[in-house]
């Protein structure tokens, strides 16, 4: 149940006309009162003799009783209270009780003999009500409605439990400010899918991802087409910034600017500077990625480095100091933004949705200690500067590899937030993980399909060897892996690992031990990407001239030598 408080109105009659009207964003059905301050106010929806003017004059009476100079300029308090779509349909009596509890909790009408404001609750849909009040009490004073939105949310959590409704995760004050109803209506009139505030927040977040300093940050904002205003001190020092969409104008035709702090708490200039100031120095950059057989630069190399950085961040989030872990979780959001910006069309929508969802998970009351997250921030920078990736070949396969590791990183963030009691952040990270699953399926189908076909073509003796190797290296996972379709892709990868000069059993055991696999849809898929990354193998093999027969003969001779050393004999088939 979500209360959405807005106390900036100045015309009671205008709000009542909307509530009893046909509706703009949704159809209004049977508008009527479910509760009022006196339980006997005129209802224009059910009483044919009552008018909107009658109800407006009754509500505004304490305001009009004040001298002209003492009347507040904006005296209309308004909140909608909306049930979750999964909840049952509540009766008018239940909504009446909810309305009375909300106005009492917010100080609009506290009860217990205390003077209250006049209010009315209108229902014009099954799933929500609107409460309208005038902000002058019966004795002519301003009500004690300080932080009424927060108080309404706290009361809604109690109502949910008592009525057996879906329980919404409680907030902690670190969420980005939601668009106002006026902003939503404006977006609807202009034919926008999102409000200007939401579009600006995403654009600024992407501009921050991996940026090395102010100049690059503002260059990115300008390149994205935003209007920028900088706030400069008399000394010439930059104090802050505002951004606007070129086509978002007010009634006077002027651009509507939003300061960074109004877009999200971590997008103010001082908070962004914390990332830049901590990027200098050698602070736990982490081990260097194994040598790769891919090209040294470009999108695929950036994605491999991203997978390595995500791998190291997992350890920090699970075992590190909470302030350092919070920094890595925040920087994971930058990596998701950068990956969404530079990925191919068939994965871009899901990656963008994952980045938008994870934005809420990147902030909490645990203050991030910047600097230790340099590897992740560098990965975001590499992704941006590596340029757009193709949806096929090494670019597509390394994208799947990066998404696979980022999924486990986001899963670690879910567990971290859950242990800290950060309900909203944990839920946001779960949504991001689901979008990453979908993006992974789109990215991995082609490269894993090629590996699968290679595995199917391996000779029976080599497949039997890989089977035995799997049981030796990871006996606890062997039966599950062998039952998965991805087993053949893993068998082909084990052959590639051995052909590259590695011990496949040792490497397989090592990559399986390092991180949990319970949340993986396919354990074999995860092992494929971990092996190929750790061994420095190309992520994509679809264009490789197949040498599996030579690989089979090499592996067979290796197997013979190993058995000969152990005093056994192997008969060649």
Give an account of the 3D structure:
With 573 residues, the protein is α+β, with helices and mostly antiparallel strands. It has 3 domains: 2-163, BirA Bifunctional Protein, domain 2 (2-Layer Sandwich), CATH 3.30.930; 194-277, no CATH class; 299-556, no CATH class. Helices cover 53% and strands 8% of the residues. It is built from 21 helices and 8 strands. The strands form 2 sheets. A 5-stranded antiparallel beta sheet has the order 1-3-5-4-2, with helices on both faces. A 3-stranded antiparallel beta sheet has the order 6-7-8. Strand 4 and strand 5 (128-134) form a beta hairpin. Helix 6 (196-208) packs across helix 7 and helix 10 packs antiparallel against helix 11. The longest helix is centred in the C-terminal third of the chain and has 35 residues, at 423-457. The chain is elongated and about 95 Å long. It starts with a strand and ends in an 8-residue tail after the last helix.
What oligomeric state is this? single chain
Strand content: 5-15%
Low-confidence segments, given as residue ranges, are 281-295, 557-573
Main structural class: alpha+beta
Q: N- to C-terminal separation? A: 69 Å
The profile of the biggest β sheet is: 5 strands, antiparallel
Counting H and I runs of at least 4 residues, what is the number of helices?
21
User: Using DSSP, what is the number of strands?
Assistant: 8
Mean pLDDT: 88
**Can you write the helix and strand succession as a string?**
EHEHEHEEHHHHEEEHHHHHHHHHHHHHH
Strand neighbour order, sheet with most strands: 1-3-5-4-2
Count of all domains: 3
Shape: elongated
Gyration radius over CA:
30 Å
Secondary structure: helix percent:
40-55%
């Amino acid at each position: 149940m979500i209360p959405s408080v807005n106390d900036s109105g100045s015309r009671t009659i205008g709000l009542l006309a909307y509530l009893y009207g046909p509706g703009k964003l949704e159809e209004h059905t049977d508008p009527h009162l479910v509760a009022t301050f006196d339980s006997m106010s005129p209802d224009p929806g059910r009483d044919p003799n009552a008018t909107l003017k009658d109800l407006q004059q009754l509500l505004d009476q304490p305001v009009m009783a004040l001298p002209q100079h003492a009347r507040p300029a904006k005296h209309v308090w308004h909140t909608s209270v909306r049930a979750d779509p999964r909840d049952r349909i509540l009766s008018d009596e239940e909504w009446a009780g909810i309305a009375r509890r909300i106005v009492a909790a917010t100080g609009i009408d506290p009860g217990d003999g205390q003077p209250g404001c006049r209010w009315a609750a209108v229902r014009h849909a099954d799933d929500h009500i609107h409460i309208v009040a005038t902000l002058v009490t019966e004795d002519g004073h301003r009500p004690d409605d300080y932080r009424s939105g927060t108080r309404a949310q706290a009361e809604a959590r109690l109502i949910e439990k008592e009525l057996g409704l879906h329980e919404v995760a409680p907030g902690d004050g670190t969420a980005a400010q939601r668009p106002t109803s006026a902003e939503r209506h404006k977006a609807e009139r202009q034919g926008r899918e999102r409000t200007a505030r939401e579009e600006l927040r995403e654009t600024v977040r992407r501009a921050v991802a991996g940026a090395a300093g102010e100049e690059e940050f503002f260059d990115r904002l300008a390149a994205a087409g935003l209007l920028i205003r900088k706030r400069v001190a008399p000394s010439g020092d930059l104090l802050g910034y505002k951004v606007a969409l070129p086509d978002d104008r007010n009634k006077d035709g002027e651009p509507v600017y939003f300061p960074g702090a109004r877009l999200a708490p971590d997008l103010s200039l001082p908070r962004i500077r914390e990332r830049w100031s901590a990027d200098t120095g050698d602070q736990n950059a982490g081990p260097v990625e194994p040598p790769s057989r891919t090209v040294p630069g470009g999108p695929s190399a950036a994605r491999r480095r991203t997978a390595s950085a995500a791998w190291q961040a997992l350890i920090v989030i699970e075992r590190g100091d909470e302030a350092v872990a919070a920094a890595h979780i925040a920087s994971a959001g930058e990596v998701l933004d950068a990956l969404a910006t530079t990925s191919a069309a068939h994965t871009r929508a899901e990656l963008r949705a994952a980045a938008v969802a994870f934005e809420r998970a990147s902030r909490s009351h645990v203050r991030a200690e910047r600097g230790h997250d340099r590897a992740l921030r560098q990965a975001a920078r590499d992704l941006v500067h590596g340029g757009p990736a193709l949806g096929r070949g090494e670019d597509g396969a390394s994208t799947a590899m990066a998404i696979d590791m980022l999924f486990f990183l986001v899963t670690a963030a879910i567990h971290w937030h859950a242990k800290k009691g950060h309900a909203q952040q944990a839920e946001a990270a779960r949504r991001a993980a689901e979008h990453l699953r979908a993006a992974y399926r789109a990215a991995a189908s082609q490269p894993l399909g090629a590996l699968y076909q290679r595995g199917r073509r391996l000779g029976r003796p080599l497949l039997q060897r890989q089977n035995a190797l799997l049981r030796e290296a990871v006996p606890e996972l062997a039966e599950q892996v062998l039952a998965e379709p991805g087993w053949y892709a893993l068998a082909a990868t084990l052959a590639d690992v051995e052909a590259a000069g590695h011990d496949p059993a040792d490497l397989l055991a090592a990559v399986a031990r390092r991180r949990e696999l319970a949340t993986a849809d396919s354990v074999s898929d995860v092992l494929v990407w971990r092996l190929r990354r750790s061994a420095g193998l190309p992520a994509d093999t679809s264009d490789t001239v197949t040498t599996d027969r030579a690989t089979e003969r090499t592996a067979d001779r290796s197997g013979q030598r190993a058995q000969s050393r152990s005093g056994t004999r192997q008969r060649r088939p």
